[in-house]
Amino acid sequence: MGEPEIDLRGVRVRPGFIEAGAQAAMLADLREVARAAPVMRPVTRRGPMSVRMTSAGRLGWVADRRGYRYEATHPETGAPWPPIPESVLAVWRAVAGVQVDPDSCLVNLYREGAKMGMHQDRDEGDFGFPVVSISLGDEALFRVGSVEKGGKTTSLWLRSGDVAVMGGAARLVHHGIDRVKEGSSVLIPGGGRINVTLRVVR
Ligand SMILES: O=C(O)CCC(=O)C(=O)O
Ligand SMILES: [Fe+2]
Fold first, then answer.
1. pLDDT digit string (tens) for 74-94?
2. Which residues hold Fe cation (predicted)?
């Protein structure tokens, strides 16, 4: 079950929660997700995002020039999103502390130079449910601030197999990925990092 939990400004980080064999199995499951729902590079009003993404589950998070929202179908194929893999659901059930399963699984792919600016996850209908975030592949510098914009932040390198839970008072904290350490893991062919976030959107 990995190392002791870390409290990062209320975000609970479980280092090494997913062991190497399970990481490889999850990666294979995510490859199937990407086959059914091709990975896209969202272009928002601010321009193209550096992170590529796709989704699984009843609802997928979609970003485009019109804004951010959850949708039941892939914007390019028009098909429903594939089901959330059991390997991913198992992590939610082990750490989320709620009886409800997630209805959305966002798969973020960080290739060369990709990062994610500070933001809140607030497109969901009920902030009583946590967000569970799984890291695979290269290490990423995860920055956590406060619910309020600006102010003090604390950073931690997330490694392959780490799981972070944003719940309770930390459900709406600002957070982002400053950078990814290229070549720090050999899990993903071609390099890079995959982050999987599970949410109850409803
Ligand atoms: O990549 C990460 O670890 C964070 C992803 C994230 O914050 C998000 O998808 O909302
Ligand atoms: Fe987020």
1. 999 999 999 999 999 999 999
2. 119, 121, 175
| Residue 15 token pair | 């280092």
Q: How many angstroms separate the CA atoms of 119 and 37, rounded?
A: 25
Q: How far apart are CA 156 and CA 119, in angstroms?
A: 16
Would you tell me the crossing angle of helices 86-95 and 20-36 to the nearest 10 degrees?
120
Nearest atom (ligand 1) to Cα of 158? 3
Structure tokens at 195: 């982050």
Candidate from 163, 197, 201 with most ligand 1 atoms within 8 A of CB, to mutate: 197
Ligand 1: residue whose CA is nearest its atom 2? 195
CA angle 67, 76, 83 (to 5 degrees): 95
Ligand 1 near 104 CB (within 6 A): no
**Ligand whose nearest atom lies closest to the CA of 63:** 1
Which domains does the chain possess? 6-199 (2.60.120.590)
Our mutation pick for probing the ligand 1 site, out of 54, 141, 163, 175, counting the most ligand atoms within 8 A of Cβ, is 175
Quote the DSSP letter at residue 3.
S
Regarding an ipTM greater than 0.95, the answer is yes
